Automatic annotation (TrEMBL):
InterPro entries linked: Sortase, Sortase_D, Sortase_D_1, Sortase_dom-sf
Transmembrane segments: none
Any one Gene Ontology molecular-function term assigned to this protein's record: hydrolase activity
Protein name, as recorded: Class D sortase
Biological source species: Rossellomorea marisflavi
Residues forming coiled coils: none
Keywords: Hydrolase
Catalytic residues of the enzyme: 109, 166
Keyword Hydrolase tagged: yes
Length: 187
């Protein structure tokens, strides 16, 4: 009996070690992807001429989101599927880009690029740097919506930056709510 308990214990420990190793490998891959996207974004900004929206491919780095209150800069990539979000903050292509006078929608994982997002408050500044220039926004409010509430991506009739991440922040798995931050341009 003691021998089978020992074998089961060893198997459980080995399984746990494999799981931890795989998780650490995944985290390193995500960091590497974000670093590559950041380098690509900086190169695109330095080039001074952005790729037209219709020519952008999902996962392509297009800019940098700077969040001074969190002392963070993250790359912005085209698209918001799982592969895109591993590289940085995803810009939903059906929404506007800064300077186009409509809603800009950026999504990110709460446990990577948008950690501590719940600490942001009205009045905090967000900055988007693209090849076309630097655009500054000030947070006006935050709301929690159901994941299937797509009204947060609809045209706003004016320029507005909307950030989205999963909520509640403490969960380790997917959730059915989203934490939304709205910000208006600073002129």
């Amino acid at each position: 009996m003691n021998k089978s308990i020992s074998v089961i214990g060893i198997l459980l420990i080995c399984t746990g070690l494999v799981y931890v190793g795989a998780s650490l490998f995944g985290i390193q891959e995500q960091k590497h992807a974000r670093n590559e996207s950041m380098a690509s974004a900086q190169k695109a900004i330095s080039a001074g001429a952005g790729t037209p929206s219709e020519d952008r491919e999902n996962g392509e780095a297009i800019g940098i989101l700077r969040i001074p209150a969190l002392d963070r800069e993250v790359p912005i990539v085209t698209g918001a599927d799982e592969d895109d979000l591993e590289k940085g903050v995803g810009h939903v292509p059906s929404t506007a880009l800064p300077g186009e006078g409509e809603r800009i929608f950026l999504a990110g994982h709460r446990d990577t690029v948008f950690t501590r997002m719940g600490e942001l408050k009205p009045g905090d500044v967000l900055e988007i740097r693209l090849a076309e220039g630097t655009f500054t926004y000030q947070i006006t409010d935050s709301v929690i919506v159901d994941q299937d509430d797509l009204s947060v991506m609809e045209p706003a009739g004016e320029e507005m930056l909307t950030l989205s991440t999963c909520y509640p922040f403490e969960y380790l798995s997917s959730t059915d709510q989203r934490y939304i931050i709205h910000a208006r341009p600073v002129h």
